[in-house]
Specification:
Elements lengths: L1 H9 L1 H18 L4 H24 L5 H43 L1 H13 L2 H41 L1 H9 L8 H42 L5 H12 L4 H5 L1 H12 L1 H31 L3 H15 L1 H17 L10 H7 L1
Helix pairs in contact: 2-8, 3-4, 3-6, 4-6, 4-9, 4-11, 8-9, 8-12, 8-14, 11-12, 12-13, 13-14
Organism: Limosilactobacillus secaliphilus
Keywords: Membrane, Transmembrane, Transmembrane helix
Family: Belongs to the autoinducer-2 exporter (AI-2E) (TC 2.A.86) family.
């Protein structure tokens, strides 16, 4: 038994494969927490990346000061969104609801409503209303879930980065474990490679979000829309979700556009979003992703399509990192090898 165990430990490829299966199993059973896990990882990666960049320019600046300033800016940004953007959006929703109510109560619409009532039964109307209420409840529930995940992720990433050096020293102590050191080394090996590949893709999506935001704000400026900065911030945050974020931004932009220029502005915004969405999906996403991950555009686009089909919106975010991660550990193609040394110190 001891000999078999020693042979297992000495076979690096075998025990790394076993550890990889264990990690996949743990993530599968923790899939209900996937929002919190991924958002925490994204926040932590961005803040750690920023810490290393600032300390490279100014080595004497302490980590805790950088982290404190960054999270204060995040809190101020959230305060700005809550106090400025959300009231604006709610006000536009109320205006749109009032406009629709007046529109359907007008004399010109009475003949249409009476015509509809002849062909639509009361039971059908109640059934559709019930379905609409259920959709509204599901939407509110999902928003609440994402909000809680976002809050927990901010707290977790803050405590990780505020004690970054202590966290690194404590985590490295697992590598010297007498009995399970080999397992922690494998976990460190996979974690290091995933941080490398995910970071490359995250940077690509950041550049895509900037392009989407600039194009959208230019269009909104010529349309003379109010609160362009707040709307631009909303578009930037949603654009961090590949492909789907641009489409989601259509809803609040259409509401604001309707209050400014009526149905004509809604049509303009729909056309604008369709053009930007096509630009992102067919030009920016494949081009930035392929240049950063060193993958052909065809492979990048296929991975985005397949991962979105199987994993939904999160598939668009983690599909390319997982694919490049698998290529790396399989020895097919190393991604971001030049940055490997940097990320090893960052981990």
């Amino acid at each position: 038994m001891q000999k078999a165990w020693n042979r297992f430990i000495s076979n690096v490829h075998l025990h790394r494969f076993v550890v990889l299966l264990m990690i996949i199993a743990v993530l599968y059973y923790a899939r209900g927490m996937m929002n919190t896990i991924l958002i925490t990882f994204i926040f932590t990666y961005i803040v750690v990346h920023l810490i290393r960049w600032v300390q490279k320019k100014a080595p004497k600046v302490p980590t805790w000061l950088i982290v404190t300033v960054v999270y204060l800016l995040i809190v101020l940004g959230l305060y700005f969104v809550i106090t400025d953007y959300i009231p604006l959006l709610v006000n536009e929703i109320v205006k749109m609801a009032n406009s629709l109510g007046k529109f359907y109560q007008s004399k010109d619409m009475k003949w249409l409503m009476s015509y509809i009532n002849q062909y639509v039964s009361t039971g059908s109307i109640f059934g559709q209303a019930k379905h609409g209420v259920q959709l509204l409840v599901d939407a509110v529930t999902s928003i609440g879930t994402v909000t809680i995940a976002m809050a927990m992720s901010l707290i977790l990433s803050f405590f990780y980065t505020i004690e970054l050096e202590e966290m690194n020293d404590f985590s490295k102590s697992f590598l010297t474990s007498t009995y399970l050191g080999w397992m922690f080394e494998d976990i460190y090996y996979f974690g290091q490679k995933f941080v490398n590949t995910f970071g490359v893709v995250l940077e690509a999506q950041f550049f895509i979000a900037i392009c989407n935001t600039v194009l959208t704000m230019i269009c909104l400026f010529f349309m003379k829309m109010p609160q362009i900065f707040a709307l631009g911030l909303m578009v930037f945050l949603l654009s961090m979700v590949p492909v789907a974020g641009v489409i989601i931004s259509l809803i609040p932009l259409s509401m604001v556009g309707y209050s400014v220029g009526g149905l004509r502005y809604v049509i303009y915004i729909i056309i604008m979003i369709l053009v930007i969405h096509a630009l992102e999906a067919y030009v920016l996403n494949p081009k930035f992703m392929s240049s950063r991950t060193e993958l052909p555009i065809f492979y990048t686009f296929v991975v985005l399509l397949v991962s979105e089909h199987f994993f939904g919106t999160w598939g668009l975010i983690v599909g390319v990192p997982i694919f490049t991660f698998l290529l790396d550990i399989a020895g097919v193609k190393s991604i971001g090898r030049k940055r490997h040394h940097y990320h090893r110190h960052q981990a």
